[in-house]
Specification:
alpha/beta; five-stranded parallel sheet; 25% strand
């Protein structure tokens, strides 16, 4: 029987390095991460530009990673961009086995530092980490077949910027995959924002 799709994660006793094991019928992989906040002396360093991605691995990221482990064809041989990836970028790490070229981004410099460290530790040649703040910056000249966003719609005041960022970086026949809980009605408000924009179809 093929292995069951799963994500196991734990931290080593002697240090705070996370070890994550991904298992699916298509492949298995182990990932080591050493998030930047392990060395912080106080929570003051977690303040500033949206630090929610630096405090934990959110459920949307786990769910989207599991989706790619079970549906690798959705990113196979495609150019992929992840937005608001936080310190771990688990969807990008899980799908990097299949994507042609991938860029994982966040608006927080410390998150991007952790992402870059994870890429180097795990020698992922087709994955690159970059800073990207929605509505303020663009990856000049870059268009993507698939854009990923996990747990990125909680802040309702950023919905238009998120859509603008997607619109700027998506190919004409590309798609955006968003995974988010209904948290405090934020997902429904985002769906209404998508509808009112008049240029997107969704399912």
């Amino acid at each position: 029987n093929p292995p069951r799709t799963s994500i196991f994660k734990f931290s080593r006793k002697n240090n705070s390095t996370y070890h994550i094991h991904l298992e699916s019928p298509y492949f298995s992989a182990s990932i080591d991460l050493n998030p930047f906040f392990n060395s912080l002396d106080s929570s003051s360093s977690l303040r500033g530009f949206d630090n929610t991605g630096n405090v934990r691995l959110w459920s949307g990221g786990e769910a989207l990673a599991l989706y790619f482990l079970e549906n690798p064809s959705s990113v196979k041989d495609k150019k992929v961009l992840e937005l608001g990836a936080g310190f771990m970028g688990l969807p990008s790490l899980a799908s990097s086995k299949f994507g042609r070229r991938m860029i994982v981004t966040d608006g927080n410099e410390q998150s991007v530092s952790s992402l870059g460290d994870a890429i180097r530790r795990n020698e992922i040649a087709n994955l690159e980490a970059r800073i990207l703040k929605w509505g303020e910056e663009e990856l000049k000249g870059e268009k993507f077949d698939v854009i990923l966003a996990a747990d990125c719609v909680f802040f309702k005041n950023l919905h238009l910027q998120l859509l603008e960022c997607c619109n700027s970086h998506l190919t004409d026949d590309g798609c955006v995959l968003i995974c988010s809980p209904k948290r405090k009605g934020s997902l429904q408000v985002f769906i209404e924002t998508v509808e009112s924009a008049g240029k997107w179809s969704y399912e």
